[in-house]
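Recap from last week: sequence in, structure out.
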Amino acid sequence: RRDAVRMTTQRAWRAYMKYAAGFDELRPLSRLGTNNVTPIDVLDTFWMMDLKYEFKEAVDIIRNIDFHKATNELSFFETGIRVLGGLLSAYELSSEPILLKKAVEIGDILLVAFNTPTGLPLSRVDPRSMTANGKSVVLAEIGSNQMEFAKLTEFTGDNKYREKSQKVIEYLSRVETDAPGLVPVFMDSISGKLGSNFVTFGALGDSYYEYL
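Predicted structure tokens:
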């Protein structure tokens, strides 16, 4: 069964490399792709499946990614857990230097989001202008990056990553609610004001509690 899964993975990757290499989506008529996260998403899977050739192919695609040339704003949350997290986990497994280099590159871009009076990150980052916006955030967005930034500090020795992300947890721990320890999901990153008293362990808040 393990071999069958491995072969199916290889077959899917070969089709991906033929028709959509470097992209997440393929437009069937124009045959043009969009986005570029799939090669990062598959790194740790390939490594654990001992698909070293496919791993190298993915790394070669990532080597040529320039995050500063992204044509759209980046989601702080999705980019943190998928791109930064994916690069760091693959680096920890493989010790491939380019993966750490790219993790630092995207990590520095994401740090821009923390430039607020409260220290709470904004929801979107423009890597071209190195600015951020989107002050209306949810708990899962701002409270699910501490592990990635702590790892980046561990691998680089630069404490700025851990400091920025940990201040968010310290801020949230001071939020006063009727249920101590439970944080409402809607808030404003600029003012720190809560949007409501709605608390949930489900969507919008789940990953904050998972990261704790």
